Amino acid sequence: MKVLVVDDHALIREALHSVFLELQSDATVLEASDCDSTLRTIEQNTDLDLVVIDLNLPDRDGFSLLAELRQHHPLLPIVVLSALDDRDSVIKALDLGALGFIPKNGRREIMSNALQIVLAGGMYIPPEALAPKAPAPLPPARATRQPATFPDDLHLSDRQVEILSLMMHGKSNKEICRALGLAEPTVKYHVTGILKALKVTNRTKAVMAAVELGRERTGRPWIADTSPTGRRRRATDR
Fold this sequence. Notes:
Number of strands: 5
CATH architecture of the largest domain: 3-Layer(aba) Sandwich
Largest sheet: 5 strands, parallel
CATH topology of the largest domain: Rossmann fold
Order of helices and strands: EHEHEHEHEHHHHHH
CATH superfamily of the largest domain: Response regulator
Oligomer: single chain
Shape: globular
Number of helices: 10
């Protein structure tokens, strides 16, 4: 495992260094303290498995760095580690292509678990980012609704469940097409149905809604099985 840690505070870089060594004793952990050194390091190391970046860097805004990295290195897994843990910052980072958002004020074990999820191909969203901005009573229909099994109660097709799971793993439409052997218009059609079922307007909000619903219904985030044996295929979906 080869990772790059980007933070202008040496103590944070040292802490992350030790976390990665706990995850894998022979891990190679590179460090950078600003955007310029980050870009140079990535160009010199094309075999990185993960980049962890802070949003508050001395020479540039971390969001702009994230956008640039996603544009020039679309397959490079990136996680944000930041003191900015408000919902808007989390959503913006995920919209720009981050596969996870880890608050700096989180416990060490939370940080370790989050990194393991992303390294395994998943997406980590802090639970506090899923909370509504202001407390509000539940509407009557939701307050009286009987417990149901997520995602079955959304009435998604088997293919839509499969595509939603891949979306939650940070896959683009083209990557989903390649993974499932589907035409892009077919994937777009299913994504539109998923957004409608979750009552959201974009992919990031769909992922967050799925995580929130899974946690609400089962007590833990929902991530479907995307292994070949776990996929439920239907010939009519192709």
